[in-house]
Specification:
Structural class: alpha+beta
Oligomer: single chain
Helix content: 25-40%
Number of strands: 15
CATH class of the largest domain: Mainly Beta
Shape: elongated
Strand content: 35-45%
């Protein structure tokens, strides 16, 4: 019985030793794995910032040469300093390229969130008031597409009165012949009328064209005090030109321009033949910010 008890205790001791060794091996293996991963991360970090470490190394060499060897040939120190400047320039160039890539990614994300498939380069808005009831409203703009396979463009109009007709056309470059864009869909909404026009062909990201929409309106400017307004759909810094022409027999009085929450600016009409007109430029507008030109008949 004593021998059996001794054998059992010996087996239990061997098992415990084996388990300990196994756990020790696992711990050692995990430690080696973690060490390899840390070394790998450190290597990637050093590789990505190799130019910065190069600048630091060259700077250390320049300082060491200047301190330890005060009688060293100045040309050697100058060469080391030039090397330091070159390494610094390379590091700055890499950082700038990385920032440019980040800005490009941000621009793609912003384009994806926009309702419109293009950026506006410049825009001209003209209101031709033939009399108090009849007017022609024309918007012309240069656009650059931010998406590919664009074959339709929308237009939304709102305001008092009735839009009796809405036409659109486009051209690839200023001076080219205009191409009509037929209307393919119209939807009346709470804010006005939304019209969809066909370009007749697909345009790709980066393509540019002139886009013009002309509306005929009835009864839009019949009150004693009137105004025209334009609201920015996004933050924008492209130049906008605003032009209003009044009827020959009904010149306006007390013309004012308001941009956003800024103070009103008094405008003076000019003569073009026998008709009064004003023309102003607005460069910067925030999202949902208005510019407005008001007058008294």
């Amino acid at each position: 019985m004593a021998r059996r008890q001794q054998r059992r205790e010996l087996c239990a001791s061997w098992c415990a030793s084996a388990a300990y060794v196994e756990r020790l091996g696992i711990a050692v293996g995990c430690g080696r794995k973690m060490t390899r991963e840390r070394l790998k991360r450190a290597g990637k970090f050093i590789w990505r910032n190799l130019d910065v470490f190069g600048v630091m190394s060259v700077a250390a060499v320049v300082v060491a040469l200047d301190i330890l060897l005060p009688n060293l040939d100045p040309e050697i120190v100058s060469s080391a300093t030039l090397a330091l400047l070159g390494a610094t320039a390379f590091a700055l160039l890499r950082d700038r390229r990385g920032q440019e890539r980040l800005n490009a990614i941000g621009q793609v994300a912003e384009d994806a969130l926009s309702d419109l498939p293009y950026d506006i380069i410049w825009q001209e808005n003209e209101w031709d008031l033939r009399d108090r009831r009849n007017s022609t409203i024309r918007m012309t703009q240069r656009v650059r597409f931010t998406r590919s396979e664009v074959s339709t463009l929308p237009h939304r109009s709102s305001g008092d009165g009735e839009v009796t007709s809405c036409k659109a056309r486009w051209r690839r470059a200023t001076g080219d012949a205009w191409i009509n864009a037929p209307e393919i869909h119209k939807l009346r909404t709470r804010e006005g009328v939304r019209v969809l026009f066909s370009l007749g062909e697909e345009h790709e990201r980066g393509d540019m064209l002139d886009w013009e929409v002309e509306r005929e309106a009835l009864g839009r400017f019949s009150e004693a005090h009137e105004e025209v307004t334009h609201k920015a759909k996004t933050d924008s810094e492209f130049p906008r030109k605003v032009r209003i022409v009044w009827p020959a027999n009904e010149p306006p009085s007390h013309i004012e321009l308001r941009v956003g929450s800024g103070p009103p600016k008094r405008l003076s009409g000019k003569l073009e033949g026998d008709r009064v007109f004003v023309e102003e430029s607005v460069v910067r507008l925030r999202k949902d910010e208005l510019f407005a030109v008001s007058w008294n008949w």
